Every structure is written in C-alpha cells, then in structure tokens.
User: Which sequence fits this backbone?
C-alpha cells in the first residue's frame, strides 16, 4: 500500500509530477550526455591509433599525444626495422597544415601520411574512392562530416594544403578528429611534400610484431635499440594520448564538473518537489501517525515516491541521451551512450532521487499526529 | 494538562477523572475550548498529561514511550476524525485496506467492513465522489479495521446534515454494542448526546457537575 499511496499522491497533481519528471530527466540526460561526450572524446582522441594495425609506435622523446609529435629522422626507422621480431615497419607523417577552401578561407587540418601499400595505416572506413587512389600525386582523403567545413562536396574537388594542390580522391565515413582540425589522409610522399619534410623524415615509425614473437619482449628490445626515442605499444600510446586530451587540457574535468552539477540540480529539483508534495499531504501523514503507522511506513511512502521519480525520470532521460547519441553520429562531437552506461546511470538516478527525498521523509515521519485534531 | 507557561499558561484539563467501558458509547460534550478534544487525545496516547494516569484495558500507559503508545494506538484504537481524513488519492476500499495492512490484517477484510457500514457498492469510489455521510461511514469502517477495543471519534457529525449525522451516531452505537467496544465521542450535537449511553459534560477543562 505504501507504493500505491506514493504513486497516487504523485499522480494526483499532474503538473507537479511533470515538473518532477522533467527535472529528473534533465539531470539524467545531462549526466548521460556528459559521460557520453567523455566516452566519445576518449574514442575520438585515439581513433587513428586504435585503427592503425601497428603493434609498436616510435616517437620523439617527450611526445604527449598523437596530434603534436616532433620530427624523427631515418635512424629510428632503420634500427627498428632491423630488430628481430619486427615483421614490418614504416614511417608515418602527422602534421598540422593550413587547408585553403576552393571558395577562399583557411582551415587547419592534420595531414596523416602513410604507406599506401602496406595496409597497416590509413583510413579504415570509406564512402567513396579507395585507399589505392591515394597513390596518385596530390590526392587526399577527407571525411564526410567535414565536407562543409573544408568547402568541398566530394571526390574530384580540389583545394590547397600549405600552398600545394590537394585533390579529393577518397571520402571517409565518420573518422572524427578530437581537435577542431579534421584528419586528411594522404600518401607518405604527398604528406612529406605538403609538410616540407625531406625524404626519410617522418613523425612516427610504426611496426608490426612478427607472429610467434612476444610483443613485450620486442618492445623491450626496441627500447634498448632506441634509447633516445619513445617506444610504446599501441594501447599504451592510445592511453597516453587520451590522458593528455582528457586530463591535461581540463576537458575531462569540465565534463565531470558538468555531470556533477547536473546531479546536484537533479537532486535539488527532486527534493523541492517531494518536499512540496509532502507538505501538501501533511494531514494524511498526520492521519497515518495518529492511526499508529510506524515512521518506517511513512518514510516508505516517500521512498517509493523517490523510486517512481527515478524510474520515470531515468527512462525519459536515457531516451533523450540515446537520441542525442544518435544525432551526434553526423556531428563532429561524438556522444557514446552504451546500454551499460544507461544501466549504471539508473542507480545513479536512484541515489540522486533518494538524496532528494531525505528532507521530505523526515518531515513526513516527524509530523505531529495531533495535527489532525486541530481546528 | 496545561499548555504554555507563566501568565500565558492554559489549563486544558484540570482534575478530569473518567472511565469508559466496553459496550458503551460515551459522549464528551461542552462548549468550545472546554478540553474535550484534548481529553480525547490524552485517551488516545497522542498527548501526555503532566499529572495523572491513563489506563487502557487495565494497563497503565502514561509512562510508555512514544513508540509503545504508537503501537498501542495501532493495535487497540480506531479513530474517526472530524474532517474524515480519508486519503483522497485512494478509493474507499483502499482507504480501509491501508488501515488493515498497517494492523497486519488481510486486506480482503476491507470489503466486509465496508459492507458493515452499508457502502460495499461504493467501495471503488474515491472520497471526492462520496457524500459527507458516506465519507464518514468509510472512516468508521477504517476505524474498525483490526477490530479495535476502543474507538475515539472527534466530532463525527460536525460536517453532516441531520439525517446523515443521525445515521453515523446510530452506527457508532451499534459498533460499541456489537463488539463490546468502548466508543468515546466528542460532540457538540445534542442529538448525538441523546444517543449515547452516558454523557460527560466539560467546562474549562473540568468535568461539569
């Protein structure tokens, strides 16, 4: 009966119930979207590393993230290639460069130059064109999400990168950049020419470990062979990059703070509404106490109200977050809301509503039963 | 029983000595402010007297804790309030079922209780759809949940017309007789007083001669 009374008291005032649900749903959606942005940022920040089929990465010492490396000479490439246990090694160019739109105006892009023959690196999802098309001089791959930003419409369109002609030969599908600068994939030769690098210069050397060899052992050997370079396994470099963008830049803290504020706001809304509902029904709680109902029953009614608010608010908020995630698929900021996140968020919502019900529960449980006899 | 301090102190009850027996309906009557409702609350363990003692079914309850008094109210008392105090969001049946559940009884007894007060046909109606007399009869059915030994009724006919008031008082008298219950009723209504087995008049917190 406590649950029934709780639901009926809440539903009795439709407008107030709506306010409660909007408040909880808003908080849930905001927390889910903040968490989804965090997951999206983490995924986007490491997407090129994660989709490059390399086991080892060699970079200049002190490299903090994938997007801002320092140049490497040829020595690292040859030393790594010569190590036992390395099946293949190749250079990778990663350089911020200016993109001039056909209609005028500049955008910053990150050019990624790779070996078009090996298949280790390069774009992994294409909508139009093929990776092999990038072997032709001055050809590039751009993503459909950034076509408007780059001022091009599709394959065949031309622009300029660092003063050199860039012809769109491939359109990729949903390869986002964590920064505001889109990825532009090109052959190693094209990228070096655009970046003004000499033959043999690059920013990374990436390598595949040969079958049958222990990757950690090969990693250790590579570090001994290249003491002046940063040598990491692929997942280590991905973690390093994600950590830099999420934590060192404050982006993670901003997302966390926004999520925390959403929880506080949600709790405050629930608290205000449940308290107001309790005050409205104070005579009923007084009647219950006069009849001899234990305080735990009265608190149980309030607790049920909090549970109902959590259930309905979470369902609405989670639906909104999933919608936002769906809509983000065509935007530059990816929101990732896995079902596991939605499930965890339910318990967070429950805790939020429970916290919001504390004052109301106390008010209801301590009401003077003599209240019902007052004229 | 006094409220306040010093020159602002009000003696709501002063030297009151009464008893009520199973099977009888006692009417507490007197002008407003005479202490009738205060006495009712003392009897029901909702107020503690500063002096004197209260015994319920032969057992002293004056020194008991709030939790014990609450449990006693739940087990031994039924209440009928002036303003009905039904839960507006619950049907008549659910109002009675709630009381039964609190007292650890089967909720299915609610239909029989509503039948006892002549409202079985209205059991699925919300209080807003019931007349004043019907609401008070639902309240009486709720008060009877758990078969209490004592029913305390605070101005049960105050909001009712003559016919409904008479019907409610008659019902309370039957409730006293059939269950061997003590019914103590606070009332201004002289007709209610006429229907009681005994009338106790109060003035200024004292029993009137």
Assistant:
């Amino acid at each position: 009966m406590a649950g029934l009374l709780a639901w009926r008291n809440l539903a009795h005032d439709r407008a107030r119930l709506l306010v409660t649900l909007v408040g909880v749903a808003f908080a849930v959606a905001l927390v889910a979207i903040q968490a989804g942005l965090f997951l999206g940022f983490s995924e986007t920040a490491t997407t090129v590393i994660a989709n490059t089929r390399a086991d080892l990465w060699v970079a200049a010492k002190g490299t903090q993230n994938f997007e801002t490396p320092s140049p490497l000479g040829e020595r690292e490439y040859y030393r790594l290639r010569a190590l036992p246990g390395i099946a293949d090694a190749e250079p990778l160019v990663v350089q911020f460069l200016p993109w001039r739109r056909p209609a005028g105006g500049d955008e910053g892009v990150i050019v990624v130059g790779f070996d078009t023959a090996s298949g280790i690196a390069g774009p992994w999802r294409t909508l139009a064109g093929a990776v092999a098309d990038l072997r032709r001089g001055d050809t590039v791959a751009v993503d459909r999400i950034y076509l408007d930003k780059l001022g091009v419409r599709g394959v065949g369109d031309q622009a300029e990168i660092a003063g050199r002609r860039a012809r769109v030969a491939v359109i990729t599908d949903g390869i986002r950049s964590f920064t505001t600068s889109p990825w532009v994939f090109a052959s190693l030769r094209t990228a070096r020419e655009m970046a003004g690098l000499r033959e043999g210069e690059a920013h990374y050397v990436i390598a595949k470990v040969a079958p049958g060899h222990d990757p950690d052992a090969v990693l250790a050997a590579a570090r001994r062979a290249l003491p002046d370079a940063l040598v990491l396994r692929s997942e280590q470099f991905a973690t390093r990059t994600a950590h830099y963008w999420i934590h060192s830049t404050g982006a993670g803290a901003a997302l966390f703070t926004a999520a925390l504020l959403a929880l506080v706001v949600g709790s405050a809304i629930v608290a205000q509404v449940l308290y107001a509902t309790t005050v409205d029904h104070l005579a009923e709680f007084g009647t219950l106490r006069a009849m001899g109902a234990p305080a735990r029953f009265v608190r149980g009614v309030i607790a049920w109200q909090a549970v109902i608010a959590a259930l309905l608010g979470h369902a609405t908020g989670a639906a909104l977050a999933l919608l936002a995630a769906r809509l983000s698929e065509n935007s530059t900021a990816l929101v990732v809301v896995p079902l596991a996140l939605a499930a965890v968020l339910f318990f967070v919502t429950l805790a939020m509503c429970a916290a919001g019900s504390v004052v109301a529960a106390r008010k209801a449980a301590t009401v003077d039963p003599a209240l019902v006899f007052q004229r | 029983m006094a409220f306040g301090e010093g020159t602002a102190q009000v003696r709501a009850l002063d030297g009151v000595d009464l008893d009520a027996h199973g099977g009888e309906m006692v009417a507490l009557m007197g002008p407003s402010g005479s202490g009738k409702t205060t006495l009712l609350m003392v009897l029901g363990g909702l107020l503690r007297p500063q002096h004197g003692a209260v015994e319920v079914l032969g057992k002293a309850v004056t020194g008991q804790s709030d939790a014990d008094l609450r449990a006693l109210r739940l087990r031994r008392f039924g209440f009928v309030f002036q303003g009905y105090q039904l839960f507006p969001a619950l049907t008549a049946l659910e109002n009675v079922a709630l009381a039964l559940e609190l007292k650890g009884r089967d909720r299915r007894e609610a239909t029989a209780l509503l039948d006892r007060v002549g409202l079985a046909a209205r059991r699925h109606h919300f209080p807003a759809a019931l007349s004043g007399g019907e609401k008070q009869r639902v309240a009486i059915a709720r008060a009877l949940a758990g078969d209490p030994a004592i029913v305390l009724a605070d101005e049960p006919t105050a909001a009712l017309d003559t016919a409904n008031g008479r019907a409610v008082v008659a019902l309370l008298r039957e409730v006293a007789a059939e269950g061997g219950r003590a019914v103590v009723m606070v009332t201004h209504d002289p007709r209610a007083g006429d229907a009681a087995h005994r009338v106790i008049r109060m003035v200024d917190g004292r029993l009137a001669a």
User: Anything to note?
Assistant: The mean pLDDT of chain B is 88. Residues 19-207 of chain B form a domain with the Rossmann fold fold (CATH 3.40.50.300). The CA atoms of residues 93 and 123 of chain B lie 5 Å apart.
